[in-house]
Amino acid sequence: MVLFNIETQEIIMNWTVYLSGEIHTDWREQIKKGAESHGLPVTFTSAVTDHEASDAAGDMLGAEDKSFWRDHKSSRVNAIRTRTLIEQCDIAVVRFGDKFKQWNAAFDAGCLSMAGKPYITLHDEDIIHPLKEVDAAAMAWATSAEQVVEILKYVISQK
Q1: How many C-alpha atoms does 107 have within 13 Å on its Cβ side?
Q2: pLDDT digits over 73-117, tens only?
Q3: Residue 98 confidence (pLDDT)
Q4: 3 state SS of 92
Q5: d(CA 13, CA 16)
Q6: pLDDT tens digit string along 110-148?
Q7: CATH value at residue 122
């Protein structure tokens, strides 16, 4: 989205940043607060981060006896949101945590790469090896939310 600042008479692009991945820590909030503290023109979007709500996304389509079919329906309903937000983003941050394997984040990274969308991976050094292909397609790899904010600050405001 493009905005016009009446006071400075300049055109400002409002960036849409998609936040993908791990849902058990506050990394999203850290990035949002950091971007806000620098006055970055950013709108953040994300997949559903409520684990139970995400797992139940397809339940409105009817009960299932087998977890495979429940997960299958819910993943397809969730994909409506995820695909739309990936298509609409200017850049994404894909977070891999240490507690769980975020297969969905790896899938999002693949979709971002194939769509030609730039993304930043965010993860600790101890999982470099399993993420080598994901990192190779990323525009940057960060180990902290602060580094992500600095990258966004540079890319958006050139400072």
Answers
A1: 10
A2: 999 999 999 999 999 999 999 999 987 778 889 999 999 999 999
A3: 81
A4: strand
A5: 9
A6: 999 999 999 999 999 999 999 999 999 999 999 999 999
A7: 3.40.50.2300
Q: Which of 34, 21, 151 is nearest to 98 (CA)?
A: 21
Distance CA 143, CA 154 (A): 17
Residue 7 belongs to a domain:
yes
107 inside domain: yes
In this structure, is residue 66 part of a structural domain? no
The number of CA neighbours under 13 Å toward the Cβ of 5 is 9
Asked whether residue 31 is assigned to any structural domain, the reply reads yes
pLDDT at residue 52 is higher than 70: yes
Q: Is the pLDDT of residue 1 over 80?
A: no
Q: Which residues pair with 141 in a beta bridge?
A: 121
Count structural domains, the chain. Answer: 1
Beta bridge partners of 2: 13
Q: DSSP letters of 26-82? A: SHHHHHHHHHHHTT--EEEEES---HHHHHTTTGGG---SSHHHHHHHHHHHHHHHH
Q: Report which of 24, 49, 15 is spatially closest to residue 149, judged by C-alpha positions.
A: 15
* pTM for this entry: 0.90
Q: Which domain holds residue 98?
A: 2-51+91-157
